[in-house]
Amino acid sequence: MKLRKKSTALLAAAFASMMLMSGCGQAKIGYIDGERVSKEAPQISALVEEGNQKLNEAREQSQAEIQQKMKENPNMSQEDAQKIQMDAQRKLQGINQSYSLQLRQKIDVALGAVSKEKKLDAVVNNSQEQPIAITGAVDVTDEVISKLQ
Question: How do beta strands 122-125 and 138-139 pair?
Answer without folding.
Answer: unpaired
